[in-house]
Amino acid sequence: MASLTLPPAPPNPRQDAIDLHKAFKGFGCDTTTVSNILAHRDSMQRGYIQQEYKTMYSEELSRRISSELSGNHKVWKIVEKSLLHDKSNYCTAILAEEKALSLWILDPAGRDATVLKEALSAESLDLKAATDIICSRTPSQLQIMKQTYYAKFGTYLEHDISQQTSGDHQKILLAYVGIPRYEGPEVDPTIVTHDAKDLYKAGEKKLGTDEKTFIRIFTERSWAHMAAVASAYHHMYDRSLQKVVKNETSGNFEVALLTILRCAENPAKYFAKVLRKSMKGLGTDDKTLVRVVVTRTEIDMQYIKAEYYKKYKKPLADAIHSETSGGYRTFLLSLVGSH
After folding, report:
1. 269-336 belongs to which homologous superfamily?
2. CA–CA dist 329, 253 (Å, integer)
């Protein structure tokens, strides 16, 4: 369930394109106007705006936004002229807002592909982010995203995974993006019981761990099936399958398994936890905060907010408000919504 607030009457995409073009003129970009328009348009409306913008100005809106909002040079010019005491935090907020806007303008598959490309690039390697994107997506989302990845970057996602990962982590990611899985709710209780037994034999029952069995079951089964396996495992062996994964595996391989399992059981709860971690402790992990808010707003943000409040006794909007500032805060809260 999405959290996006849209105008009561459908806005005119041509007028939006004109207003955006005006916001790009002059020194610096009027990010307030850009945010006010884009934060209240759904994926289809943003698509129409981009079509109109290209027709009118012979330029891709996403490229114009990236060029307007990218680069520390422009940001530091603004900051240097300001009287702010904490210029570093101000700059961080501006850059985070730019990142959020640049991702938001893209369609869901293009957004995932862009985040993945950056996460799998040697200069900005972030295997946790790559694992999060891959292992929290449905088979149909992965299929479209793989096609978009190739169209956008001229290289196969599998190639980049192979280049930047290794061992069991590499095996599970390649299997997860490569194996088509059933997406419906039906499960076969016999196979569920069999899988629970196989995981027990591959983990707790033996000395060491049979990673191949974990990879096979976690990458070949549907989310509904995996949730049923977790329930059956707990019933049969009086132990949480998540705890077993934590005890039997480690590193990014463990992260991949846990992401699959948690998303199978309750995706909203999983993302609430990721958001909490991004804002917990000293400083804020803006990269993760932006990624989750922007990619889940039109999917299940209302459920994520409910899970966040249930677990942490604080509204997600309040947490974001206390961890962000300026236009960055306004944009994220426009996407998340206050209720």
Report:
1. Annexin (1.10.220.10)
2. 34
